[in-house]
Amino acid sequence: MSEITTSALQQLAERYLAVWNETDPAARRKLVDEVWAEDGRYTDPLAAVVGRDAVDALIGAAQAQFPGLEFTLGPVDAHHDIARFTWNLGPAGAEPVVIGFDVLVAGPDGRIGSVYGFLDRVPGV
User: Fold this and answer.
1) What is the C-alpha separation between 99 and 69, in angstroms, rounded?
2) Minimum mean pLDDT range among 12-26, 27-41, 110-124
3) 36 neighbors 112 (Cβ within 8 angstroms)
4) CB-based contacts of 44, cutoff 8 Å, min separation 6
5) Lowest-confidence pick of 28-32, 51-55, 66-70
6) What is the DSSP string of the chain?
7) How far is it, in rounded angstroms, from Cα 111 to Cα 125?
8) Strands of the sheet with 36-44, listed across from one edge
9) Is the dihedral of CA 41, 47, 53, 57 positive or negative?
10) What does the alpha-carbon distance between residue 119 and residue 104 come to, in Å, rounded to a whole number?
């Protein structure tokens, strides 16, 4: 396996959040298929899913729970096939409602193999 560049991991993190921000179901699914490995895993304190169908369903459910909010990407720190980054979820240009930290592991084909998410600030907590 050749090493994935830091620049490629930065772009993958950007595309990852673009998937979370895509509200059109058909366009979102197309992005999921492009960005995620077929057996990609997503795990955070509230969910653990495997596969593109489950990732797509999870993202759709999150969008339904937080309508009108968008994700913004913080700095990306990357090496080998791993990237870590913070993200914010909130109204455009306003204080974020949710703040999190994710670790993304790219597969040999450059797609997302797994994401491990942590929630630093959530509403009502």
Assistant:
1) 12
2) 110-124
3) yes
4) 100, 116, 117, 118, 119
5) 66-70
6) -PPPPHHHHHHHHHHHHHHHH--SHHHHHHHHHHHEEEEEEEEETTEEEESHHHHHHHHHHHHHHSTT-EEEEEEEEEETTEEEEEEEEESTTS--SEEEEEEEEE-TTSSEEEEEEEEEE-TT-
7) 33
8) 47-50, 36-44, 112-121, 98-106, 82-90, 70-79
9) negative
10) 15
The residue among 77, 76, 67, 117 whose CA lies nearest residue 97 is 67
Measured in residues, the chain has a length of 125
Indicate the pTM of the whole model: 0.93
Cα 59 from chain centroid (whole Å): 9
Tokens of 12: 């993958």
Q: Which residues contact 42 (CB under 8 A, 6 or more apart)?
A: 48, 49, 54, 55, 58, 114, 115, 117
Closest CA to 9 of 61, 78, 58, 73: 78
